[in-house]
Amino acid sequence: MDIRDLALEMEQRLAALYSTGDPALLWEPEAQRLADRLYHAIDWYAPESEVAEGARMFNVAVLVASFHWHRCENAEEEIPREDARRATFLYKVVCQVAPHLVPEVVMNVYVQSADPVVELTSATPLATYTQLGVNRLKEAEATGDPRLLDDAAELCLLVARASPREDVVRAEALVTLGNILTRRYEFLREDDDLERALVVTRMAEGMIPEGDPCRLKFCSGFGHTAIRMFQRFGDLDLLDEAVRILREGAYEAPGDESLRAAVLTNLTAALTARYEATGRFDAATEALQAQFEAVGDTPRDHPDLPSRLVNLAGLILSHPGEITAEADRYDLAIGMLDDALSLLPDGHPDRPGCLNTLNSAYVSRYRLTDEPLDLVAAAEAGVSAVEASAAGFYRRPMMLRGFARSLKAVTDRFPDAGGLLDTAVGALREADQLLPENHPERTEILTELGFLLRDRFRSGAAPADREGAVRALCAAAAVLSAPARTRARAASAAGDVLAEAQDFAAAVDCYALALEQLELTAWPGLERADRERLIAQFPGLAANAATCAVRAGKPERAVELLEQGRGILLAQALETRTDHWQLRARARGLADRLAEVLGELERLPGRPSGAARRDDRQADERRVDLARQRDKVLTEIRAVRGLEDFLRPPSFATLRAAAAHGPVVLPVVSPYGCSVLLLTEAGVEVLVLGTSAEELGARAVDLAVALDPGHSPVRARGTVRETLAWLWDTVAGPVLDALGRTEPVGPDGEGPRLWWCPTGIFSQLPLHAAGRHGPGGATVLDRVVSSYTPTLRALLHTRGRPRPPAGPGPRGLIVSMPATPDFRDLPAAEDEARDLRRRHPDARLLTGPAATAPTVLEALARCSWAHFACHGTQDVAQPSRGALILHDGPLTLRDVVNLRLPRAEFAYLSACETSRGGFVLADEAISFAAAVQLAGFRDVVGTQWSIDDVLAPEVADLVHARLSRQSVPDPAAALHGALHAVRTRHPNAVASWGAYVHVGP
Questions:
Q1: Number of alpha helices (DSSP H) and beta strands (DSSP E) in the chain
Q2: φ/ψ of residue 344, rounded to 5
Q3: Which residue stretches of 728-808 are H helix?
Q4: For residue range 406-452, what is the model confidence (pLDDT) as tens digits?
Q5: What's the predicted TM-score (pTM) here?
Q6: In terms of Cα–Cα distance, which of 338, 339, 330 is closest to 364?
Q7: What is the b/e burial string over 904-928, where b = at least 16 CB atoms within 10 angstroms of the residue's CB?
Q8: Are 379 and 386 in contact (CB under 8 A)?
Q9: Phi, psi for residue 709 in degrees, rounded to 5
Q10: Cβ 686 vs Cβ 676: under 8 Å
């Protein structure tokens, strides 16, 4: 142990004494040995040759003198002579700098003996030592010599210990000490440095007077240290605190512009870390804005300009949104990096990072332009970055990772480039070895290593590479301090490799971990748009997991995994709409706390994706705070006996109840197989389908293209009939045969019920209308009464929801838009509304200019049934943009989804695409009909594609006529009977009536 380590151990021992008051700590043999070693580590009689050595001597003297003095104070009998001698001797060293630290008894001895030490008080102001520490810090940053950091720390420690008051002089020394220790951690990766840095920086905060410029230094230093603590240990609470304090420093605290630019740079780093950890889009946007400000505030001749340009270029490259034209983004970043590189001489510690970012920029531009010269430039920059980062350079793992990426890009373009993939693998292995076992950066490095080994296996078929890929990816997923998103990515990739090797049992375990981490990734503390964007990064994950479970002989587990990985947003919304009676029975207080948190969380206003205005931040931070409160309450709830699984993914035993009124059919498509899970009260059976993911995808795309309003109606009818026939032969017919549904259903809708719960690309296919529609042809419509459900949990929830309280008779709402600004007229919508109003004269009618979004939302809260006859739109790339078009614009899915409609029973959406989900986020079952059901309507009639304006009133009238004749309203049977009648009247119009679906219990 060197002097620094010995001093730290003595400091900890004295701290233990002060906190416990136990003098026995002073008399332990190890304590005496420590004091002896520290005492003899300093040559007390050597002439002081350098100020840092003098500071070190002072700091050791303070510690050892205090140790021996406390032994004198706590001696049970005679004061030990050696303790008294050492204390008296060492306090002479202390007295010259900080006489107030010398015990009064000892000082009296000096005075009475006329010891000259009393007159030798140093004339050097304490603040001078702090500045000397700053100078050593800058020298260390320029040279990379960590010994200079030790000297700098001793200088600042002297000030912190010698200052007689808790004032700004001491505070500035502590802040500087925190900066030094953080930089030492970056150089040497010793966790103790980082923890001490945070402690001493926090100590400084309370010593800074209000309005003092030192507050800005504190904000910057705390932010820097907290970011590193987060990167090392993954503490999101600490990172959020750093963002708050850095925002204060950047926009509120007094100070000069050059220091403000440093604070903005640290704010950028904190926000970037927040984005990378949580996926919050607003954090990435605010980070980019802050770094633009930092660069703008930095003079051309400022030494930190190059590093700030590098940071800005990195943010431009990595921002998830649209900044400028894609090619311009890369050109802009490369220009900034070339400028920064010209300002950084060889040997400068910022040069490797600049070269690494330049490498990334060239690789990104190559992927856009396919220009081989960019690959060459990337490889050269990658090599230079690694060469410029010495073996002990704290950022070397990042340089090696960037180097490996550039080599991978080269081998993708030139597969025969001998040995480059092997070099890339070696670089990533070295990078991994340089990091502590639970360092979060290991997840990214090991994931990329796993991908490289997987690719090398595919090209060379060496089993060791496949095994190595699985080991690397599983190790990446096991790093507990890493963000959930990166762990999910690694676990999913491990599952893919194992599934390709047909090790389906092991693949299930990996996919299960990925699903667990995906739920954590889509955390309720994020805006809905952020959650959607993150979930969209894992298409097909639930289906892959379920398919592997099926192939591993675990169909019940397949149902569980499928439900866990689908409808994540829906499951979160159902938390607030479920009567948690079991919780209330066992822990009413916890139930009340949970309801309060979830209620406020749901009521928080949303904002458009990409917005990052400062006045939105309060709601964003409140959302995060509430989500964390939710997590804490759930932890307490799950500690209660009998509630261990509260709000966890449901078990198969729970999910099986969804088939209580009829089978639920879950079609699953995956690269590893296509099958249908047939859920009945008896259990689950598997039906393997004779198709593939590629064929299903092609069928869905062909259908979507044919049904686009811009294409030929003749082609649309032909494609629809062909698709429905293929669906019957391949999916629906075998399903109904397996379920024993072979007898025809009566035209009035009396017959066996069946619920379709499609997954993935199946959600774009009209399973309910499958059949050979022609004389004598078999169809789903002839055998079962079909309904849809977004998920099994949604079906169970809707069935379990209590009926509206007794009161006045059903109150209806009719919304009709025969003419809509900027859309074509729908003259039949007027007829549809008139016929319905004739049947229900007490219903409220909103039409034309009266049908505005605010008015409709207010009316929905009062009605038990609602009928819309208007335009509808859906964006299959962003399904949450689904909307009904009213007089003042769209009534969006997001306007509806958070409604609570206690009287709602039945909604009829006579508009285009209201029950259509997206190609993106297919497993989230995001449609306007699903949102309406979530808002409170038990039963919803919607449409899977554009409908015929002429036929729509006929279908609507038939449905409402049947409902009016039923003693107990059964919308599914009413729609089924209506479609039977329409098919009889219009046998060739399946492309029109086939769009209608029922969603509900």
A1: 42, 14
A2: -110, 110
A3: 733-739, 792-800
A4: 999 999 998 887 789 999 999 999 999 999 888 889 999 999 999 99
A5: 0.89
A6: 330
A7: bbbbbbbbbbbbbbbbbbbbbbbbb
A8: no
A9: -55, -20
A10: yes
